[in-house]
Amino acid sequence: MRVLLVESGVAAPDRFVYQCYPPHGLMYLAAFLRDRRPGHEQKIIDLMALRSGADAIDNVLREFSPDLVAIHAMSFQSKCMHQIAARVKAWNPRGVVAVGGPHPSAAPDQTLADPNINLAASGEGEETYVELVDRVAAGADLAGIPGSAVRRDGQVQSGPERPFIADLDTLPFPAWDLVDLRAYFTDVMPNQNDITHRREVTTIFTSRACPFGCIFCHNLFGKKFRARSVGNVLDEMEALRDRGVRELHLIDDCFNSDLDRARAIMRGIRERRLDLKLAFPNGLRGDRLPDDLLDLMVAAGVYKMNFGVESGSPRVQKLIRKGLSLDAIKDGISRAAARGIFTHGFFMLGFPGETAAEMEQTIAFACATDLHTAGFALLSPFPGTEVHHMALEMGKTIDYDPDDTSYMRLSANLTAETDDTVRRMHHRAHWKFYASPRRVARILTTMPHPTDFVRSGLRHFRLKFL
User: Fold this and answer.
1) What residues contact residue 201 under an 8 Å CB cut-off, 6+ apart?
2) H/E segment holding residue 26
3) 446 burial class (0-12, 13-18, 19+ CB within 10 angstroms)?
4) 224 and 164 in contact (C-beta within 8 Å)?
5) Beta strands in 332-430 (DSSP E)
6) Assigned architecture for domain 2-158
7) Which of 8, 44, 238, 253 is buried most, with the most CB atoms less than 10 Å from its CB?
8) pLDDT digits (tens, 9 = 90+) for 325-349
């Protein structure tokens, strides 16, 4: 059987300014199928890397002629996902289209309202994918596969819930051979880290799930932290180094949930002389950074950390259930910055019931830290998140635009303030944070390539104003 795995792009690629990394989810699926059911032919096409819309798959459909098309989509890719499904069915009405990822997991009813989609998978997809391929190959009914849903007689029918994979070492490494890593080795390829130290950069997952309960997050991998063994992680890092990778971005949900494991990975990188630059664009708890771990990180090559703070208001921190101590994360930022690590902070404005005074607390907190840079997003209540349910309970209309990847648009105002006040505070946050000459000087002296500051600034200008 031939299977085409597609990473969705965006419906308006000319406006595309979002991050682009190799499609880990699809590469894990391909590797798992190859391990469990060798013999199937698989091909990956990444519309994000191609900067293309759905029309880019037309030639691939004709040339590869897949029996099954599996599409991955986050919320901002959902419109393109539906466009891809329509093109597949226009090419072959009997072709099977399955979708997975955060958006189908969060909104299966909405996803399956599209007659061009045969199945929506939810959560962790490897075992679901193998069973799906088995059934398509046998010409069997797709209903009832654990971890998936189909539409029958106008009703969504969900299969049993699929347990998460307990031992992540049983997963083969992602199918790196099915993507051209060199396509991602370019200065113009945006990434979640915003900057790079070396051009030859890619990403790695060393664990799955986050044990914390943030109301604005999807819950794709559950809440029980599951980690690959230290040796398994280091072996993949070494294999990537041998493929020409010289910088790794660790994109776990919560890398340092297990401090001893985090220490051992950092030690192992040095002991194996991997000579990699490392960054944490996501998923690092800033209140779990003891000095010895920071020292090991610096020795291993860590040069950048992103800290998810979200709010400087104690009331809002309690509301969003992040479980974060503001004093602890401020201290963690300071100790990381003192070691020469470039620090970036994530903040949000627009939480339920938030007042202008609480937004001002967030701005003041950000300015009082040793962060080099900071981003202030407007809360977007994505489908499937708890804050989305809260918005509906509040009677709010959510003007969600899947083409907008910027987090700079007020899709729903859940605060105690007017829309104009929220926008004014959002504008004020950026200007006040970057108005410090000392901060700008620290950015230029700590950033690996100071010209990145200009490029990153222009990118964020596009996100905010274009």
Assistant:
1) 184, 185, 191, 245, 246, 247, 248, 249
2) helix 24-36
3) middle
4) yes
5) 342-349, 373-378
6) 3-Layer(aba) Sandwich (3.40)
7) 8
8) 999 999 999 999 999 999 999 999 9
Neighbours of 327 (CB within 10 A): 9
**Residue 111 near residue 104 (C-beta atoms within 8 A):** yes
Distance CA 359, CA 24 (A): 36
Instruction: Determine the Cα–Cα distance for residues 322 and 310; give it in Å rounded to an integer.
Output: 9
Q: How far is CA 449 from CA 198, 286, 372, 428, 454, in A?
A: 10, 24, 14, 27, 10
- Per residue in 168-181, pLDDT (tens digit) is 999 999 999 999 99
CA nearest neighbour of 304 among 336, 256, 274, 342: 342
| Rounded mean pLDDT, 139-148 | 97
Domain with CATH 3.40.50.2300 in the chain: 2-158
177 three-state secondary structure: helix
- Residues 6+ away with beta carbon under 8 Å from 216: 310, 320, 348, 379, 381, 382, 385, 386, 387
Cα 367 from Cα 30, distance rounded (Å): 45
Contact predicate 48/192, CB 8 Å: no
Helices within 194-282 (DSSP H only): 230-242, 259-271
CA atoms within 13 A on the CB side of 132: 31
The pTM is what? 0.91
Least confident range from 15-19, 104-108, 367-371, 422-426: namely 15-19
Q: What's the pLDDT at 466?
A: 46
* Superfamily, domain 186-465: tm_1862 like domain (3.80.30.20)
